[in-house]
Specification:
Largest sheet: none
Helix content: over 70%
Mean pLDDT: 81
Strand content: under 5%
Low-confidence stretches: 176-183
Number of strands: 0
Length: 183
C-alpha cells in the first residue's frame, strides 16, 4: 500500500472510530468484545483499503466486515455451551431510565440469531434503508423485511415474557401478599 493510502486510512480511522465502535457495540453485547471486533475489522480492512474505489463506502464495507467477523466468532464458539430458557439478569450501574432501557434492550438482543441481530442493528440503529441493509448483508430486500419482522416479533415476545415474569415475582415477594389481603 502506498504511503498516501496509509495516511488516508489512518485519517479515516481517526475520524470514524467513535461511530464504528458504536456499531460494533451494537453487534456484540460486551464492550471489550466490541473493541476486539472493531480492531479485527480494521486490520482486515487495512489489507484491502486500496481496493475500495469509492472511499465514501468505507463505513458500509467496514460494517460488513464486522458482521462477517462476528458471525465467524459465533460459529466458532465452543460447542460445550448449552442454550437455556432463562437468561442471566444484567446488572445496570447507571440508575437513569435511559441507560436501564438501553441495557435491557442489549440484553434482550441476545435472544436473536446473528442474522436477525444484524438486520435490526442496521435498520434501526444505523438507520439504513431496506435496500442499503440488503446490500450490506448480501440479501434481498424481501428477506430483510421478513427477517426484521420476525426479529421484532421475537423481541416483543421476550419483552412481554420478562414483564410478566417481573410482575409475578413482585406478587410473590414477602409482605406483598399480606398487603393485598389486608386491603
Amino acid at each position: 500500500m502506498a504511503h498516501g493510502e496509509v495516511l488516508e486510512f489512518e485519517e479515516y480511522v481517526r475520524t470514524r472510530q467513535d461511530a464504528l465502535l458504536r456499531s460494533a457495540r451494537r453487534l456484540v453485547p460486551d464492550p471489550v468484545d466490541a473493541q476486539d471486533l472493531l480492531q479485527t475489522a480494521l486490520v482486515r480492512t487495512y489489507g484491502r483499503w486500496d481496493g475500495i474505489a469509492d472511499k465514501r463506502l468505507a463505513d458500509a464495507y467496514l460494517r460488513r466486515v464486522m458482521i462477517n467477523t462476528r458471525t465467524e466468532w459465533w460459529r466458532a464458539r465452543k460447542l460445550e455451551e448449552v442454550p437455556t430458557e432463562q437468561l442471566p439478569d444484567a446488572s445496570v450501574d447507571d440508575s437513569t431510565e435511559q441507560h436501564a432501557d438501553r441495557a435491557l434492550l442489549m440484553d434482550i438482543m441476545k435472544v436473536l440469531a446473528p442474522k436477525q441481530r444484524s438486520v435490526v442493528v442496521l435498520r434501526h440503529w444505523e438507520q439504513m434503508s431496506t435496500e442499503e441493509t440488503a446490500a450490506a448483508l448480501g440479501m434481498s430486500a424481501g428477506t430483510v423485511k421478513s427477517t426484521l419482522h420476525r426479529a421484532l416479533a421475537r423481541l416483543r415476545e421476550e419483552l412481554e415474557s420478562r414483564d410478566y415474569d417481573e410482575r409475578g415475582a413482585r406478587a410473590l415477594e414477602p409482605g406483598k401478599e399480606r398487603e393485598r389481603c389486608a386491603a
